[in-house]
Automatic annotation (TrEMBL):
Family: Belongs to the UDP-glycosyltransferase family.
Keyword entries, A-Z: Glycosyltransferase, Transferase
Organism: Cnuibacter physcomitrellae
Protein name from the UniProt record: Glycosyltransferase
InterPro entries: UDP-glycosyltransferase, UDP_glucos_trans, UDP_glycos_trans_CS
One annotated GO molecular function: UDP-glycosyltransferase activity
Pfam family, one: UDPGT
First and last residue of the signal peptide: none
PANTHER family with a match to the protein in the record: EG:EG0003.4 PROTEIN-RELATED, FI06409P-RELATED
Amino acid sequence: MTLLVISPDYASHLLPLATLATAWRDAGERVVVATGSATTGIVRSFGYEHTHLQLGRGSNPGVIRAEDQPKGEDDALRGFFAATRVGMVETLRFQAEARLSDLMWEPVQAARATQEVVAALRPDRILVDHLAFSARLGLTAAGVPYGDVVLGHPSALPLPGSGEVYGFPPAWPAAFHPDADELARLRELCERVDRSFTAEWNAALAELDPSAPPSASAFEEHGETVLLNYSVELADERRRAAYGPAAFLGSAVREENGPDVDTVIEWIAASDVPIVYVSFGSFLSVRDDVLARVVEALRDLSSSGSAVRVALAVGSADVSTLGSLPEEWLVREFLPQVTLLGAAAAAVTHGGNNSVTEAMTAGVPLLVLPFSTDQFAGAAALEEAGLARALDPNAAAPSELRAALADVLALPAGARARLAALAASLRDRPGPARARAALLRAPSTPTGDVRP
């Protein structure tokens, strides 16, 4: 059997997809990953074959910096970072406006390139990142079934008839109080983006397959097999009913090894003082102003008698802005997240889906500081379940962060029991096994007649 994995050229997208594919690799089957050149090293590290497929202008092999991006993409990235400093609605508005032009990069060309990959490889099963819209367009036009992996919060795939619109959070954490008029304007913009994107999708689809029926909402389109990289225990009732429990993969926790991991394991073993892991992921580590307040809160927490050790992944942040860092802290640009979560008492995160699902699998409570996209809905779900505190990263003072961290470290017994049960469920049947079982239940991929 041959499994084809299709991913944008971003580490945060490829890593969970590559992890899901380990179920095929470990069964002795062939895995081929179609993505760009920036993440080839990740593909090779999993032992997979790589075939080139460019699905966008930008790329991110691990830690993103605007100056490393092609012209145009660099300014867009700087604009996004600037919007996060204004606030949540401004960030969501910036992202919505950007979607008017950047969701499908060269859609017909990328769709045909996807079809060429499929025709050449003739895979038995296909896993595709849901946000690889141009690739999914090519598969749809060719009538090729695939497993559609939604890597973010499930609201990244709006439910038909639910009133949801792509880009507009269905829920907010309690600490956020968006203005009603601003929200109304944001929703109107997101609805306009939906119409524009659907028109773009339909125009490209008509060029690829003139006989294909147009879509009513391209954001609601999905593959024959929907796979949500999310815990069914945290999902809302509507999605459980719409997709069924088998669609929820739980998590895709990657393997970590190598000398850097060994060094971190030694640091973990050097003391029994509780560890707090801090990371804002590959994009939002640029917000060193927020990171500096988190660092101050953690220093204050230690000095107040609640001793903690800190593992701090600074990413693209300017370390000189963070003030004095205790010698016993572990501070690196990049840290093996899964390894550290396995030993952490708590974690501070921007609320990205990889961070959330990996923390839940490890049974680690969170302080979530969401900045954008689906991070708000994910933080709200965790907060409602009693497994996290969520604060506004632009507004929370060090004293508020310190108090929230103390709450997370002292999670009540009932919430800790729920978290332990969730973690046990996620570890008992990992995401790769669930993904393989779901795709094996689906028809094999008929690729013999695919023509770009």
